[in-house]
Amino acid sequence: MREPRRLGDILPAVASSLGLEEELRLARAMASWERLVAERVPAAAGASHLVQVSQGVVVVSADESIVAQELRLRGRELLEAFRTVPGGARARELRVVVGRGRLRPGAGGATERL
Q1: Is 24 left (phi over 0), alpha (psi -120 to 50) or beta?
Q2: Of the four, 19, 54, 57, 90, which is 20 to 30 A from 79 by CA?
Q3: CA distance 59 to 96
Q4: Separation between Cα atoms, residue 36 and residue 103, nearest integer Å
Q5: Domains (ranges, CATH) in the chain?
Q6: Distance between CA atoms of residues 61 and 51, nearest Å
Q7: Residue pLDDT tens, the chain, 114 long
């Protein structure tokens, strides 16, 4: 009988075999962003969502303009912290898009509303 293995240990290999590495990377980044915002900008928790991380740019949607403003004001701090969390990335820019509803990555790095 095989020794049990942790799901987190085998998930990257399974994702790779299914061609889902990018989706797994984005899901980890999204979860880390949510925790990071909840910890550092509690007022924005649940009202902002990571949409995309590409070429040094983190794109985030914010439900309200006041949330977007707070994220922009704390942008440098958030990006520095994002570099250190699991699934985080080195980014030089934070772009915040205001609008109700979540955005999702589209073809070619564009975003579209869900």
Answers
A1: alpha
A2: 19
A3: 6
A4: 19
A5: 7-113 (3.30.300)
A6: 7
A7: 888 888 777 766 766 677 777 777 888 899 999 999 999 999 999 999 999 998 889 999 999 999 999 999 999 999 999 999 888 888 899 999 998 554 555 444 444 333
